## 1
Amino acid sequence: VQLQASGGGLVQAGGSLRLSCAATGTSFSIDVMGWYRQAPGNQRELVATASDGGRTNYADSVKGRFTISRDTKYTVTLQMNSLKPEDTAVYYCNANVQRGMVNYNSWGQGTLVTVSS
């Protein structure tokens, strides 16, 4: 299973960006899809996740500003509003994939979000 992320870029503080991620492959299902981010010198951290059943989870730092949507079983978007310089990071799409009896995490290639002050 491959995850293809798009979106990201450079925006001024207070602006908005939208990230999208699509999973492709054969004979698989996904329960949870989401986004993580990693800023220089920091560990990768959770941003938001969405389950196939509609449950969402957000990091405290993005609550009220970011919205995650599970558009289909294999796609997820992250609408980021009121962006702050501290949101600058590489954002990674993540999916909890099940293929037969095997369950594993798949990661996208990462997309850079830069928020200027």
Note: The longest strand covers residues 89-99.
## 2
Amino acid sequence: QVQLVESGGGLVQAGGSLRLSCAALGRIFSDYPMGWFRQAPGKEREFVAESGVSTTYADFVKGRFSISRDRAKYMVYLQMNNLEPEDTAVYYCEGRRPCSGVYEWFGQGTQETVSS
């Protein structure tokens, strides 16, 4: 059983920054890929970034977001800079086993709102 718990969402003005955190609890190992998805109102959930053997980002990140890990603490972070109103969404932490082709676990989500 794996549980992912996000924190750090909130309200920020356009151009501002936020840092999201995710704690992984349960039967998960430090080498498991972990990352972030988001879901904006009326839209499907979309991939944002993942840290595993390599680090990958969605194209829309455009160098504004940075994912990092503290493997000893089973934490993953998402530093978001130069935020835009279009970044408003619920952000979900995700995790999976290294050989899994699907995203297996998601947190409950944390709301981020960017005002113009």
Note: The CA atoms of residues 56 and 78 lie 12 Å apart.
## 3
Amino acid sequence: VQLQAYGGGLVQAGGSLRLSCVASGRTFSRYGMGWFRQAPGNERELVAAISWSGDWTHYADFAKARFTISRDNTKNTGYLQMNSLKPEDTAVYFCAAGDPRDLTDTEYWGKGTLVTVSS
């Protein structure tokens, strides 16, 4: 499955962005998916993950209450709604597909989209 993330940009602190991850190739609905991020000088970290059906989700502590992961299998698209953004959320955001409980070793990664949050 090929993935492409969209929706990054520059936003002021407190603002919102919605990222999209569009899948093509293999059947997207067969895969769980997740969002990761990597800030300069930092390792890539999990933001949120969702099962293939959408009935299971998991969030990193920093994402709880501010970010929402979702998907629309009819559109082969996953989403990450980010609210109350903080400057420390600045990073390149990546989407991945595979086992939602262990995405770090998946071979299916999309190119990232840059999110910059100004103070």
Note: The chain has a mean pLDDT of 95.
